[in-house]
Amino acid sequence: MNMTYKTAQTQYYLDYLIEHCILAVTFFLPLSLPISSGFLGFGAVLWLSKMIVKRKMDFKRTPFDVVIGLLVVLAAFSIYASPDRGFSFYNYYNLMGRYVLIYYLVVNNISSAAQIKRIIWVMLTSALMVTLYGFYQYLFGINISANEWVDGEQFPDLKMRVFSTLENPNLLAGFLVTMMAIGASMGYKTPSVGGKILLFSLVAMFGTCLVLTYSRGAWLSLLAVIGVYGLLCNRKIFWLLILLPIVMLFCHDAVLERIMSIMNPTDTSSTLRLALWESTIAMIVDKPLLGIGWGSYWLVYPEYDFFLNNPNIKIFHAHNMYLNIAAEIGIPGLLAFLTIMYGHVRLALSMLQGSFECWLSGLMLGIIAAIGGIIINGLTDYVLFNIQLSMLYWLLNGLIVVVWQQSHQRQKQDILLKNVM
After folding, report:
1. 360 close to 116: Cβ distance less than 8 angstroms
2. Torsion of CA 84, 387, 222, 157, to 10 degrees
3. What is the pLDDT of residues 105-158, one digit of tens each?
4. I need a labelling partner for 310 at 20 to 30 A (CA). Which of 57, 334, 370, 392 fits?
5. Which of 319, 335, 316 is nearest to 281 (CA)?
6. Would the CA dihedral through 286, 290, 295, 296 be positive or negative?
7. Would you kindly state where each structural domain of the chain is located, as residue ranges?
């Protein structure tokens, strides 16, 4: 009896520590990748320790285990096609390992609505810190003329693009769109007035910082988020598709210039993207099955450089999520990735009208909108190339599965109650 009590107590402490590791991973994710990764590794060790204490392989199955395993295998096979297998292998197990680990760590160790709520509030608090630092950059000035984020001739007045802790304005913008989607949906579904004021105030701050990134792709993805809300919640929200761009136009002349340049073929950024897509399609045609190798785009691109003709310039990704994934791990790998994305969105959609707490359906709506933003942004950029944003994407997918597991368990309990009665 004493031994059983000690085992249960040990499991309790391990569960407590694992949850706080996940909270730490979430908090530090946009602030410091090394610290976040450290907590992720520590959480994995604690999870393994819990299984040793329980003397049981404590692993919850999900509807996506097979296709995730397929993606892992296909990405591994692509390493053989890489011009530098050592680099691709190192890059593969460091990144894919993080993504799969954070997904299954959440799925297997988060099991209550209270735990999910803590994760979301930690996530929003961290996003607030990122946003405040972005405001600091804007107020105290960081000259971006030395960087290649803006065509200086096309936009001579644009000297400031905030990037906060994420090192690039487009990455910060992608992160902020995700946080706005989650914050707005939870604010919409939260019954308390105080909660609505707090959440929508956060969304307004994130949106202001988003404008200061001057990221055109993210602005378009924000319109996609609004479109998702309009389709799934309230058709009146579609008015924001008209009003939001008008409001942004009055923010700064540079905003108008950036919006008007989206379809301008003379903009060097747009021209470069078209050239990269042409080169990437050529890579896919040459190696459609295994691809050019995980993480090898920058190594292979010089062979397909039809535009820059400068071997000293490194191009790390195709500025198109779909083309980049197909190029690096092959068309089957892209199909596996899209199946995972579609499957999680469909699962979240099935829970929008669930019988659980209202804010949980709001969270599902927010994650659907956030993924919708990633889908649209992926047409002109590849923010998931960034490790932190990819980890965030897999964490959100894990939360979808946790909410589904809760819903599934509740349905079983309802069926048992009906049978008893």
Report:
1. yes
2. -80
3. 999 999 999 999 999 999 999 999 999 999 999 998 765 544 554 444 444 444
4. 334
5. 319
6. negative
7. 1-58, 62-420
